[in-house]
Amino acid sequence: MTRRTLAACLVALGLLTACTAQDDGIDGVSTPGVPGPAEPGTLRVLASSELSDMTPVLDQVEKDTGIKVRPTYIGTLDAVDMLAKGTTDGRYDALWLSSNDYLRLRPEAAKRVVSETPVMSSPVAIGVKSATVRTLGWKPGDVTWSQLEQAVQDGKLTYGMTDPARSNSGFSTLVSVASALSGAQSALTDADVTKATGRLKEFFKGQKLTSGSSGWLAAAYDRRGNVDALLNYESVLKGIPGLTVIRPSDGVVTADYPLSSLVATDSETRENVRRLTEALRTPEIQRAITERTHRRPVVASVRPASGLDTDRRRELPFPGSRSVADGLLDSYENELRRPSRTVYVLDTSGSMQGDRLADLKQALTALTGDFRDREEVTLMPFGSDVKSVRTHVVEPADPRTGLDGIRQDTAGLTAQGDTAIFTSLQKAYDHLGSDRDTFTSIVLMTDGENTTGAKASEFDAFYAGLDRDGKEIPVFPILFGDSDRSELAHIAELTGGRLFDAQQGSLDGAFEEIRGYQ
After folding, report:
1. 136-148 in b/e burial notation, b at 16+ Cβ within 10 A?
2. What percent of the chain has pLDDT over 90?
């Protein structure tokens, strides 16, 4: 992360701690979710977003035990930050993350957990198109990370993965790759990360998709059709047709989904958490979990679902210190990964005058602390037409110049004119052209609906006429003020983007959440 440690990233991500991912599809909307007051027989659970697929299982557990789970789904990093700051106290009764490994790196978070019990498991894996596996001549049970690296170098393998700075599946994947390619014999060290940097740079040249959520990543993979593989948890990959799921034989990191009691809760609540955990670990429910979700049971008497191979693999340890996690993330964000290129299409029409414009300026200024080295940022404010096009690059040798330029342009924004959404989007696509050696996207922020310039039908026709590279540029619209949800949802669906909600949440939070997709 640009000139930040993991701690700073987690502070920034605190803006999102009230977000509940209701839909991870390409037109999904993040809406705020604040848990209600405690209710008898109900557990308010702060849970990793991928656990939304557990709803049918939890419904069955409620029938069996009378315990109802009221989940709030957010990212693992967000949850750890909430726990560390004590904002879970009195609001949540239990924690259910894909892993507590992040939590253990933060003593102020770890001390707020009184117990934890694994419920199921899923290792990091790579899902490769079956045709690609045949072309490469791979035997799935024997594939190593080094073979994956070689296939990338040979130009025979491209892939997508979630953002390690915002997703536990992404960070676990990063740890797996770094551990294997460095030859580390125990938990990663700073020396291991340095040793593996050259090979990791080559490996991440193959990454063509990035995402803040596994659901959107899968949808983008399906939409594009020209990416060979996905790196994610085995359980996610097993739900995507046409993939051969491979657990590299030289080791992976595994999520164990512990259900955790919190220190701030009373004895009755902890007893209900214990009963819930016990119910989730019964043979009947363990069979339901593995059959429905493709996760692996933790009860020895229950066999994994059909299609989950039982060959043993080396379990790679999580970094043992926060400094190593910081260093690995910083290296990935600023050196290893493909750089980002984004056009911010910003509504500065007359209706933005006053608090709305002030909110926009504040959110953009705050966002400069999160821009990565090598990132290209274009600000394209519009009213009745595009007002200006200003591009800045965060150069590694002199990042301050680019960041100061963004802040100055942001401070100079003024509100006037009508709202030419579709004309401005067309100009954003024209500006981006066909350079695709980056993660390229458009962010659209508007507080109203289109009132002048090109109409929606004209933009649809424009988009239909783009070449393949152009059609791979997603638009991430932000609902704000009086913007039209259906209009912006259509733009997201058409372009393969995702809709973000700042009407019920905050503009800061929406901009920050989009970072996982850039």
Report:
1. bebeeeebebebb
2. 81
Q: Distance (Å, rounded) from C-alpha 357 to C-alpha 335? A: 34
Residues whose CB is less than 8 angstroms from the CB of residue 251 and which lie 6 or more positions away in sequence, other chains included: 176, 179, 180, 313, 314, 315, 316
Residue 159 pLDDT level (bands cut at 50, 70, 90): very high
Contact present, 276 and 61 (Cβ < 8 Å): yes
Residue 512 and residue 16 in contact, taking contact as beta carbons nearer than 8 Å? yes
**HEC per residue, 2-30:** CCCCHHHHHHHHHHHCCEEECCCCCCCEE
Residues 6+ apart with CB under 8 A from 134: none
For 267, what's the count of Cα atoms within 13 Å in the CB-facing half-sphere? 0
Q: Torsions phi, psi of 135, nearest 5?
A: -60, -40
**Cα–Cα dist 361/380, whole Å:** 14
The torsion angles phi and psi of 345, rounded to 5 degrees, stand at: -90, 105
- Identity of the residue numbered 261: S
Rounded distance, CA 98 to CA 92, Å?
17
Distance between CA atoms of residues 27 and 492, nearest Å: 6
Q: Are 102 and 168 in contact (CB under 8 A)?
A: yes
Q: Which CATH superfamily is 6-120+256-297 part of?
A: Periplasmic binding protein-like II (3.40.190.10)
pTM metric for this prediction:
0.89
CATH of 339-517, one of 1.10.1040.10, 3.40.50.970, 3.40.50.410, 3.90.940.20: 3.40.50.410
Q: How far apart are CA 454 and CA 118, in angstroms?
A: 54
Phi and psi (nearest 5°) for 128?
-115, 140
Q: Report the SS3 class of residue 421.
A: helix
Question: Please, which residues have CB within 8 angstroms of residue 15's CB and are 6 or more apart in sequence?
Answer: 506, 508, 509, 512
CA distance 258 to 281: 11
Name the nearest CA neighbour of 505 among 20, 9, 97.
20
Residue 410 is encoded by which pair of tokens?
């942001």
Average pLDDT for residues 247-252, to the nearest whole number? 93
What tokens does 53 get? 């697929």
